[in-house]
Design a protein that fits this description.
Elements lengths: L1 H19 L1 E2 L4 E3 L5 E4 L5 E6 L5 E6 L1 E4 L9 E5 L7 E7 L8 E4 L4 H13 L8 H4 L12 E3 L8 E2 L13 E2 H17 L20 H14 L8 E2 L1 E3 L17 E2 L2 E2 H18 L4 H20 L26 H15 L2 H10 L16 H9 L8 H23 L16 H19 L2 H14 L24 H5 L21 H6 L17 H4 L3 H15 L6 E2 L11 E2 L10 E8 L3 E9 L4 E10 L2 E8 L6 E9 L2 E9 L2
Parallel strand pairs: 2-9, 10-15
Antiparallel strand pairs: 1-3, 3-7, 4-5, 4-8, 6-7, 8-9, 10-11, 12-14, 13-16, 14-15, 17-22, 18-19, 19-22, 20-21, 20-23, 23-24
This protein binds ligand 9MR (2 copies) and zinc ion (ZN).
C-alpha cells in the first residue's frame, strides 16, 4: 500500500514537473526583495495568481533571457514580479494556461526553511538517542556507541572513546577535514551576524539554554572533535568502518570502526575551529572556551613541529579501507586558517607573523571554499579582524581579492541561464554547496561594499537551490512542493517512512557522472545541469552531507532576517545623524508596505497608524530601541482602502506622514 501511494505521489510529481517547465522558488520570496521565475515555454505573458482564491493580482510580459543555455540546453524566458509585495500564497500561470508550483510571499518566508536546515544537523547526531520529542517520527536509539579502534597505520593499538559528532553524510563515517569547513562556516555565520543567528528555539535538546542553538549544534561536533586529538596535538583523520555499511539504521551498524592516522590537514582545521570556538564560547562557557584554546594551541605546536604535510603526500586510504578519503595533498590553507583564527583569539604576534608571511602563497581569494580549500575562511577572518595589530595593507589586499572574485561571479552568472555562478564545467559532485558558498562570498562582498548587485546575486543562488533550476527541484528535503524524495541517506532509506529526513540538501548535478545510476541515465551529451537524479543510488548527485548543509544554513539564516520587521534596514548601517520618519514606499501602498525611520540615539519609540478620523488602527512599535535605521513592515490585510496617517514619537521627536491605502 505504502509503495502504491509512493508511486502515485511520484507520478503526480513527475507529471507536474514535466508538464510545467515553470521554475519558481518553491519556498517563496521575501516581500521586499527581487522576485522572478523562468520558463522554457514561449508565451507572451504571465499572471501571479493567489492559490487559494484564484484571484489574479499581477500580470506582465515574459522576456527572452537566454537561447540555448550552455548549462541546461534550454531557451529561457524570465518573468519579473518584484514590485508585487502582497503577502500570501501564489502560483504563476502562463498565458497558455500552464501553472507553476505554489509558493509564498511574506516577510518571513525563509524562517521555516532556515530552522529546518539547521535542524538537519540534529538529525545527523550520533551516539545519542534522537528522541520523539525532538526527532518526531525520525526518532531512533543511540547509535555507534562502540569505541574506535586505532588502525594499524596510526602506529598505535587499542581503543579510544569517541562517541558523538554528526554522521558525515549519507554514510555513517566521521571525517575531521569535512567537519572543518562545516563547523567553520556555522561559527562564521554566528560570529559576523549574531543578530541573524541567535535563535534559541530551534527545538533541539539544548533549546532554551540561553546559548544560541547554532552554537549548541556546532558544539555537538566540537566535543567529538576534541576526542580525535592525540596527546602530542596531532589530530586523527577519520573514524569509519573499513567499508560503507548497507542502507541500515545507524543503531544496527555495529561493525568495528577505525581511527585513522594523524594528518596535518585535519590538525590545521582542528586548530582553526577550536581557536574560533574559544572566542565564541567565551561569554557562554569559560571552561569550554579555555579547553578549546588549549586544544588549538596544542594542535598548532604539532603543526610547528611538523612543517611538511603529514602523512607525506596527504592522507590516503590504506589497503582494505574504502570509505571517504577527502584527499588533499596541500595543507597550506589549513595551516593558514589555523594561524588566522589563533591570532584573532589570542592576539599573539607569532600567529600574525605566520599569517602575514604566508597569506599570499597563491594570491588572494580566487576560488570558493570547500573541504579541500579553507584559504578563504582564513582570509575572511583576517579581513574582518578586530586585532589592532592586523595589517591594514593586507586587509586591503584581501578585500580587493574578494571584490574581484565577486565581480567574476557577475560574469559567470550572466553566462548561465538561471544566473548560477558556475561555469558549465563546475557542475561537479556536491556543486550545490559551491553555489551557496559563492553566495556567502557575495554576501561578504556586499557587506564590504554595499553593492546591491552582490546581494541580489547571492539571493539568486538560493533561488536556484530552492527550485529555479532546470530539474524543477527543491534540492532540500522537506522544502517546497517538489523536493528531493530519495536522497542517498541511510536513515532516510532504512526507516520505512515515505518522507526523507527533512532539511538536508542534495549535492546536485554531477556532469562527470561519478556513479553507476547517473551513468545509466545520462552520457556526455547530457547538459551539465541536468546530470541529476532523485534516486537513492546516486551518491554523486543525490547524497546529502554536513559540509553542504552548512552554507545552506548560512544563506537561509542571512536572508531569513532580511524580511523580518524592526531590524536595521539593510544598506544603511551608518548611524543616522538625525531623527527621521520616511515617506512609506510604495505610496499609495499595497496591503504590504514598509515604514522606515531613523534614530540617532537610543530612544523610546512609539509608532502608530491611525485613520483619517483619528482612530488608532495599529501600534507598530512601543519600546526602547538602539540608535539605527529601522524598517517596519506594515501588513494592511483586513484594513479597507482610504487615507491613513502614521506617526512616530521618539524622544522629543514627533513626525506624522500620510499614507494612501489602495486595494
Ligand atoms: O554510501 C557511500 C557514500 O557515502 C559515498 O559518498 C560513496 C562514494 O564513496 O559511496 C557510497 O557507498 C557505495 C560504495 O561506494 C559502492 N557500493 C555501494 C555503496 C552504497 O551505495
Ligand atoms: O564531498 C566529497 C566530494 O567533494 C568528492 O568529490 C567525493 C569523492 O571523493 O567525496 C565527497 O565526500 C563524500 C565522502 O568521501 C564520504 N562521505 C560522503 C561524502 C559526500 O558524498
Ligand atoms: Zn551513529
Amino acid at each position: 500500500m505504502k509503495n502504491l501511494q509512493r508511486l502515485f505521489i511520484l507520478l503526480l510529481f513527475s507529471i507536474q514537473s514535466f508538464a510545467s517547465g515553470i521554475f519558481v522558488n518553491q519556498v517563496g520570496y521575501l516581500s521586499n526583495l527581487p522576485k522572478y521565475f523562468y520558463t522554457d515555454e514561449n508565451v507572451d505573458s504571465f499572471y501571479v495568481v493567489e492559490s487559494t482564491t484564484g484571484t489574479v493580482y499581477f500580470r506582465d510580459a515574459l522576456i527572452l533571457s537566454v537561447t540555448d543555455d550552455q548549462a541546461t540546453g534550454l531557451t529561457l524566458y524570465k518573468g519579473d514580479f518584484t514590485t508585487f509585495e502582497r503577502t500570501g500564497s501564489y502560483l504563476i500561470r502562463l498565458s497558455n494556461g500552464d501553472s507553476s508550483f505554489v509558493f509564498n510571499i511574506s516577510s518571513n518566508v525563509f524562517e521555516n526553511a532556515y530552522y529546518k536546515s539547521l535542524k538537519g544537523f540534529y538529525f545527523q547526531r550520533c551516539g545519542v538517542e534522537l528522541t520523539t520529542e525532538f526527532a518526531g517520527v525520525y526518532h531512533h536509539p543511540a547509535c555507534h556507541l562502540n569505541d574506535g579502534m586505532l588502525h594499524s597505520t596510526t602506529g598505535d593499538s587499542g581503543y579510544v572513546e569517541n562517541k558523538g559528532g554528526w554522521h558525515d553524510a549519507g554514510d555513517y563515517g566521521k571525517y575531521v577535514v569535512n567537519a572543518g569547513v562545516t563547523v567553520g562556516t556555522m561559527l562564521m555565520a554566528y560570529e559576523y551576524f549574531p543578530d541573524k543567528f541567535n535563535q534559541d528555539d530551534l527545538d533541539i535538546t539544548e533549546s532554551g539554554n540561553s546559548v544560541p542553538d547554532i552554537l549548541d549544534e556546532a558544539r555537538f561536533e566540537l566535543e567529538w572533535l576534541l576526542k580525535m586529538q592525540r596527546e602530542d596535538g596531532g589530530v586523527y583523520f577519520k573514524l569509519t568502518r573499513e567499508n560503507f555499511s548497507g542502507f541500515v539504521m545507524p543503531q544496527t551498524d555495529n561493525a568495528t570502526r577505525y581511527i585513522y592516522q594523524v594528518s596535518s590537514t585535519a590538525t590545521g582545521d582542528f586548530a582553526a575551529l577550536m581557536a574560533r570556538a574559544s572566542r565564541l564560547f567565551k561569554n557562554y562557557d569559560a571552561d569550554f572556551s579555555n579547553q578549546c584554546l588549549d586544544a588549538a594551541e596544542l594542535a598548532w605546536s604539532f603543526l610547528s613541529d611538523n612543517s611538511s604535510i603529514v602523512p607525506a603526500g596527504g592522507f590516503k586510504n590504506p589497503p582494505g579501507t574504502a570509505t571517504g578519503e577527502y584527499g588533499d595533498g596541500d595543507d597550506r590553507d589549513e595551516r593558514l586558517w589555523a594561524s588566522a583564527e589563533l591570532f584573532e583569539t589570542t592576539s599573539d604576534s607569532v600567529y600574525n607573523q605566520y599569517f602575514t608571511s604566508h597569506y599570499n602563497y597563491s594570491g588572494t581569494i580566487s576560488s570558493t571554499m570547500w573541504w579541500g580549500n579553507v584559504k578563504d575562511l582564513a582570509h575572511l577572518t583576517y579581513l574582518l579582524s578586530t586585532q589592532s595589530a592586523a595589517s591594514q595593507t593586507i586587509k586591503n589586499n584581501i578585500n580587493s581579492g574578494l571584490i574581484n572574485y565577486c565581480n567574476s561571479f557577475e560574469n559567470s552568472s550572466q553566462q548561465n541561464g538561471f544566473g548560477v555562478t558556475l561555469s558549465q564545467y563546475q557542475y561537479t559532485w556536491g556543486c550545490n554547496s559551491d553555489v551557496l558558498n559563492n553566495a556567502i562570498l557575495l554576501l561578504f562582498g556586499y557587506e564590504q561594499t554595499k553593492n546591491e548587485d552582490y546581494y541580489n546575486l547571492a539571493l539568486k543562488q538560493l533561488n536556484y537551490i530552492l527550485g529555479i533550476n532546470a530539474n524543477n527541484k527543491s534540492y532540500v528535503t522537506g522544502l517546497g512542493s517538489n523536493p528531493v524524495m530519495h536522497p542517498h541517506h541511510r536513515p532516510s532509506g532504512a526507516d520505512g517512512i515515505t518522507d526523507p529526513v527533512p532539511g538536508l540538501m542534495a549535492g546536485g548535478p554531477d556532469r562527470y557522472l561519478d556513479d553507476a545510476v547517473l551513468q545509466s541515465h545520462y552520457n556526455n551529451t547530457t547538459p551539465p545541469a541536468l546530470c541529476y537524479i532523485d534516486d537513492e543510488g546516486s551518491y554523486a548527485s543525490n547524497e546529502i552531507a554536513i559540509n553542504w548543509n552548512a552554507p545552506l544554513v548560512f544563506v537561509l539564516g542571512y536572508f531569513n532576517s532580511e524580511g523580518i520587521t524592526d531590524v536595521k534596514e539593510r544598506g544603511s548601517n551608518i548611524l543616522p545623524s538625525e531623527y527621521k520618519l520616511e515617506q512609506n514606499y510604495p505610496n499609495p501602498f499595497n496591503p504590504n508596505t514598509f515604514i522606515n525611520y531613523s534614530l540617532p540615539q537610543e530612544s523610546f519609540v512609539l509608532l502608530v497608524v491611525f485613520s483619517s478620523t483619528g482612530q488608532l488602527v495599529r501600534q507598530l512599535v512601543n519600546s526602547s530601541e538602539k540608535a539605527g535605521n529601522y524598517r517596519i513592515s506594515f501588513d494592511a490585510d483586513g484594513i479597507s482602502s482610504g487615507v491613513y496617517f502614521y506617526r512616530i514619537k521618539a524622544g522629543e521627536f514627533v513626525s506624522t506622514k500620510k499614507m494612501m491605502l489602495l486595494k
